[in-house]
């Protein structure tokens, strides 16, 4: 996305959250394939309900049914889906799978999660942040603590687009992707990378994610040892700015990256953030697929 496109999507998402699109069906007659290699609660529910509320239809396809790259080539799956549906959302293990789908399907392909990035989540995150601080986020301190994973990578990209001051606090050896960090350098944007937990102090937004993602279960014990001390607790939330908020994309592994007292803390906006997955993704679907309605 460009910064202008992001602004358009977020403005629409805010409007949808206010109920201004109730009863409007701009995607009537359109269908979205939901392709899942990884399990999902929020991604599946919000894309499915979002299509329904916009007048369209969603069909969920598990990897048992498709077998991306095993039962059938990814390129063949793409060429089939483009003949039947008007868009694809993929929640997959590898970023390359999404590139293959997009390269061979002449319809929009949305990243619902990959090993590299999680941009649909970040749309909801920044909608939530804007609800708290307004649309001009330049200079706001967003501090991400934990694994330098797809969420951390996408936070860096959002910092490039919005002008937020992004800090990644992570143990040695768990830093974000080097190519994503280079994206920030090329854009002339400063990203602070540190192992010092003191960087949390004074944050406008404190964000965390699980230490052990799906597919990393074999590393669980090693990761728990590496991330010891990086847990977001109510005490840590008292060190962020008085107006600061806490976000977590969920699911939470309580006792590891956070505790119930943090997600239920007065500074937590975790469940507003979860609600905004619906509104932000509806806005994305409308802007990606809405113009197709006239051609359908």
Structural class by sheet pairing and helices:
alpha/beta
The total strand number stands at 9
Q: What is the mean pLDDT?
A: 95
CATH topology group of the largest domain: Rossmann fold
- Fraction of residues in helix: 40-55%
Radius of gyration: 19 Å
* End-to-end gap: 25 Å
Strand residues, percent? 5-15%
Number of structurally distinct domains:
2
Helix and strand run: HEHEHHEHEHEHEHEEHHEHH
Strand order of the largest sheet: 7-6-5-8-9
Assigned CATH class of the largest domain: Alpha Beta
| Total number of helices | 12
In one word, what is the shape?
globular
Detail the poorly predicted runs: none
Q: In the CATH hierarchy, what is the architecture of the largest domain at level 2?
A: 3-Layer(aba) Sandwich
How is this structure best described in words?
This protein folds into two domains: 3-115 and 277-294, 3-Layer(aba) Sandwich (Rossmann fold), CATH 3.40.50.1370; 119-265, Rossmann fold (3-Layer(aba) Sandwich), CATH 3.40.50. With 296 residues, the protein is α/β, with parallel strands linked by helices. The strands form two sheets. It has a five-stranded parallel beta sheet with strand order 7-6-5-8-9. The protein has a four-stranded parallel beta sheet with strand order 2-1-3-4, with helices on both faces. It has helices at residues 3-17, 42-53, 63-66, 74-84, 95-104, 119-133, 150-162, 178-187, 220-226, 234-237, 260-263, 270-289; strands at residues 31-36, 57-62, 87-91, 109-113, 141-145, 165-169, 191-194, 205-208, 245-248. Helix 2 crosses helix 12 (270-289). Strand 3 (87-91), helix 5 (95-104) and strand 4 form a beta-alpha-beta unit. 42% of the residues lie in helices and 15% in strands.
């Amino acid at each position: 996305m460009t910064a202008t496109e992001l602004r358009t999507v977020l403005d629409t998402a805010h409007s949808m959250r206010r109920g201004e699109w109730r009863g409007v069906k701009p995607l009537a007659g359109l269908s979205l394939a939901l392709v899942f290699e990884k399990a999902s609660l929020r991604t599946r529910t919000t894309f499915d309900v979002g299509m329904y509320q916009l007048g369209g239809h969603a069909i969920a396809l598990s990897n048992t049914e498709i077998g991306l790259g095993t039962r059938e080539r990814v390129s063949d799956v793409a060429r089939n889906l483009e003949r039947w549906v008007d868009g694809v959302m993929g929640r997959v293990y590898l970023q390359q799978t999404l590139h293959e789908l997009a390269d061979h399907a002449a319809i929009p392909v949305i990243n619902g999660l990959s090993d590299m990035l999680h941009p649909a989540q970040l749309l909801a995150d920044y909608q939530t942040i804007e609800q708290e601080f307004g649309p001009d986020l330049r200079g706001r301190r967003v501090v991400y603590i934990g694994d330098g994973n797809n969420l951390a990578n996408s936070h860096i990209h959002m910092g490039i687009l919005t002008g937020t001051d992004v800090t990644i606090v992570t143990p040695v050896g768990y830093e974000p992707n080097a190519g994503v960090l280079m994206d920030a350098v090329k854009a002339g944007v400063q990203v602070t990378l540190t192992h010092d937990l003191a960087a949390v102090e004074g944050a406008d937004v404190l964000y965390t994610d699980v230490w052990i993602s799906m597919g990393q279960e074999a590393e669980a014990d090693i990761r728990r040892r590496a991330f010891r001390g990086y847990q977001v607790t109510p005490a840590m939330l008292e060190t962020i700015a008085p107006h600061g908020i806490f976000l977590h994309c969920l699911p939470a592994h309580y006792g590891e990256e956070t505790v119930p007292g943090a997600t239920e803390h007065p500074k937590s906006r975790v469940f507003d953030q979860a609600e905004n997955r619906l509104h932000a993704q509806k806005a994305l679907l409308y802007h990606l697929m809405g113009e197709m309605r006239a051609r359908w």
